[in-house]
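From the pipeline queue, job 12 of 40. The input is one protein chain; the requested action is below.

Action: predict structure.
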Amino acid sequence: MKIALINENSQAGKNKLIYEVLSKVASKHGDEVFNFGMFGDEDKHSLTYVKAGLLAGILLNAKAVDFVITGCGTGEGAMLALNSFPNVICGHVVDASDAFMFREINDGNAVSLPFAKDFGWGAELKLEDIFEKLLSTSGGNGYPKERVVPERENKQILDNVKQITYRRMIDILKDINRDFLKETIDYPYFRETFFKNCKDKEIGDYLFKLLQN
């Protein structure tokens, strides 16, 4: 599984710690981590939590990654921003049990964590537990076991509803403010990584042309 890590500006200083813990856990499960920043407090390419949502929407809809891990101070803003986009199901994860049940019950493809709230001593241990629960399952297996059938049925219903209530990502990209879109993706790591892994030609071509202007 290809996993994207995205940190918005208020928590950019924790990117290195989060990336190291995530990479440690991911390597145990054969997963690959792509760090889309921000890469620290001094990183000049600023990502707000709204931009993190847009970036996650692009990566997931273009199938450049399979899963996104992001967050903000409380985790709430980033979760709302990610869920603004089609084909993104982002859960708010505070602890390991949240992580496990979100993956098993809701079978989402993104999580938002509170990187400021209750993030003190032992934070790296808490992160490791959360990431372990996230990555130790393929997702959608249900919990508890007697609830597997209705949970899978509800997930399918939700997916069908989202197909009706959300527009295509390419249409959103064409209508969204061009400056805002370009500010979000115009940095070296995105250019180097996205186009190598993008599987949606229409999205890839549109963003490539945008970055040439």
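Job complete. The mean pLDDT is 97.
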